[in-house]
Amino acid sequence: MESKMRPSRRVVRSPLAALVPVVASLLVAGCGPAGGVKSAAPADDKCVAAAKAKVDAAKAPVTFTFGGPSFNASAARGKTIYWIATTGDIPFTKAVYGGFEAAAKAAGVKVNFFDGRGQTSEQLRGMQQAIAAKADLIVLQAIPVGLMGAAVSAAKSAGIPIVEAFNVDSTAPKSAGATASVSFAYSQVGGLLAANVAAGSGCNATAVAINSSDVPVSVPEMDGIKAGFRELCPSTCKLDVRDALIADWSTKVGPLTQNAVADRKVNWLLPVYDGMVQFVTPAVRQANSTAKIASFNASPGIVDDLKTSGSPFTVDIGAPLGWAGWAVADQSLRILTGAAPVNDEKIPLRVFDKANAKGIDFKGAETAIYGGSYVNEYKRLWGLG
Q1: Co-location of 325 and 304 in the same domain
Q2: Does a cis peptide bond (omega within 30 degrees of 0) precede residue 69?
């Protein structure tokens, strides 16, 4: 197995000119009057029951529901895949790539890891390197295919297929230039975030979401949040959306949070990725706010904070990241062996909160955290079982 994973290195981040954030404030249709905040109302029992039912169902251990079809993966043995990451210094990338690398080893496929360092120019260099090395397939992890421009055309001319990972919603059409896609159900993530907020606020939420608009899948996640509030509490929940690009998280998320919780009616904060939580939590504490935090990814080392007494971090929706790596390998192996790619790898989601987190060792095996066995299931589908 050939693996060239570079050491972690910080992404260069641009400083803020001032602490006053640029705010894109969007009201969910029907979720409160413009320019004002509704007074707290009694809990809507029907809404709370509906929201709680959604949350409780998603807190259960997951199962393997992906049905294949099966194929012979042995035909891919000895081939080479380049994995080009948006950035290699975040827990998400390390966990997903770790699963992919293990899956590739099981199938006898060589892999090369290229750290895009959060910079389009570096990601393009990775594409060029993969093409020059005559890779058999390229995986673009959380990198918009459209940004790769001429490199995508060059890969196509060289007969190198591209699998995009975590760029679109799980059932959405793949991006132009990609051969296949693997992703999470981001719209479902958004709906579960809204359900957790509705259940936890008595369906009287004044929530602020912190988006990251340079990440394409933020769109379906935000759409899911808005749709969830429209469904559950259209007249009693208010949502404002603010934005921080990935490169600006360390400098911008904290001030955005402080600005948001200056309004004491704000009772929930929704950073769309839990990599932001490390900047949201200190700002909440510094402001002596009682707002709670809900996010997505259940990243190693971050989700553990659900167990911290007094932490405002209350909900983290996770998808098993090692499992996701095997799902990317499954799609890649199908293409390398001439099998048809699938529309949806059905990577499951699980809700973690302060209640069920107590009984989970987040430093333990992924199957113990999420439930569901996937390694043997994929091997069986590949004819390796």
Answers
A1: no
A2: yes
Do 159 and 134 reside in the same domain of the chain?
A: yes
Q: Are strands 313-318 and 350-353 parallel, antiparallel or unpaired?
A: antiparallel
The Cα angle at residue 18 between residues 13 and 21, in degrees rounded to 5: 85
* Residue 19 located in a structural domain: no
Q: Which residues contact 222 (CB under 8 A, 6 or more apart)?
A: 190, 209, 211, 241, 272
- Span 55-80, average pLDDT: 96
- Give the pLDDT confidence score for residue 150 in this predicted structure: 95
Does residue 171 share a domain with residue 208?
Answer: no
Burial degree of 69 (CB within 10 A; 0-12, 13-18, 19+): exposed
Identify whether residues 292 and 231 lie together within a single domain: yes
Q: How far is CA 122 from CA 82, 119, 147, 290, in A?
A: 14, 5, 12, 41
3-state secondary structure of 84: strand
Both 306 and 191 in one domain: the answer is: yes
Q: What percent of the chain has pLDDT over 70?
A: 89
| Rounded Cα–Cα distance for residues 167 and 183 (Å) | 7
Is a pLDDT exceeding 60 seen at residue 8? no
Q: Global pTM?
A: 0.84
- Span 84-118, pLDDT tens digits: 999 898 888 998 999 999 999 999 999 999 999 98
pLDDT of 176 strictly over 90: yes
Confidence of residue 65 (pLDDT cuts 50, 70, 90): very high
Residues 231 and 275 in one domain: yes
Pairing of strands 206-211, 268-271: parallel
- Label the pairing between strands 268-271 and 162-165: unpaired
Do 174 and 101 reside in the same domain of the chain? yes
361 part of a folded domain:
no
127 and 168 co-located in one domain: yes
Residue 289 lies in a domain: yes
- Structural domain including 52 reads 45-60+186-318
